[in-house]
């Protein structure tokens, strides 16, 4: 059963570039058994103009979604490769807070399969 690992991070404005750079260093994940792909970006309110100069909140919100073929594949990654990547890229120093959720595939509704471009 497919699993999505959804990561929401609050990133201080001055850390946005550093966070993005360190996020790009997760390439080792691509070689892990069962890894399907990764999507991500910055949350922007509908109609909001992107401005680094002023915003009503004091941080950016990044969302990263990792897609895995099964919970077993995700667990194996978390027990092996994950911590090594964190230690090497020191990404934890670039965000204020981080929340992780997992969602499992429940039902296919007859839509075409998404073709996720190479990360």
Report on the architecture of this protein.
The protein is built from 3 helices and 4 strands; from the N terminus they run βαββααβ. By secondary structure, the chain is of the alpha+beta class. It has a 4-stranded antiparallel beta sheet with strand order 2-3-1-4. The chain is globular.
Instruction: State the oligomer.
Output: single chain
Please identify the structural class as seen in this structure.
alpha+beta
Major sheet attributes: 4 strands, antiparallel
Whole-number mean pLDDT: 84
- Please provide the count of β strands: 4
Beta-strand fraction estimate = 25-35%
How are the strands ordered across the major sheet? 2-3-1-4
Distance between the termini: 22 Å
Output the helix-strand order: EHEEHHE
Question: Layout of helices and strands, plus pairs?
Answer:
Layout: E1 3-12, H1 16-23, E2 35-42, E3 59-68, H2 71-79, H3 81-89, E4 97-104
Antiparallel strand pairs: 1-3, 1-4, 2-3
Quick summary:
The chain is an alpha+beta fold. The chain is built from 3 helices and 4 strands; from the N terminus they run βαββααβ. It has a 4-stranded antiparallel sheet.
Defining traits:
119 residues, alpha+beta, four-stranded antiparallel sheet, 4 strands, 22% helix, 30% strand
């Amino acid at each position: 059963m497919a699993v999505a690992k959804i990561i929401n991070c609050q990133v201080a404005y001055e850390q946005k570039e550093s966070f993005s750079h360190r996020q790009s260093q997760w390439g080792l994940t691509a070689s892990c058994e069962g890894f399907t792909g990764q999507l991500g970006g910055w949350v922007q309110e509908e109609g909001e103009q992107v401005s680094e100069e002023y915003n009503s909140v004091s941080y950016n919100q990044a969302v990263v979604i990792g897609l895995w073929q099964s919970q077993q594949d995700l667990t194996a990654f978390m027990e092996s490769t994950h911590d090594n990547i964190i230690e090497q890229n020191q990404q934890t120093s670039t965000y204020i807070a981080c929340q992780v959720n997992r969602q499992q595939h429940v039902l296919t509704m007859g839509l075409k399969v998404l073709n996720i471009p190479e990360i």
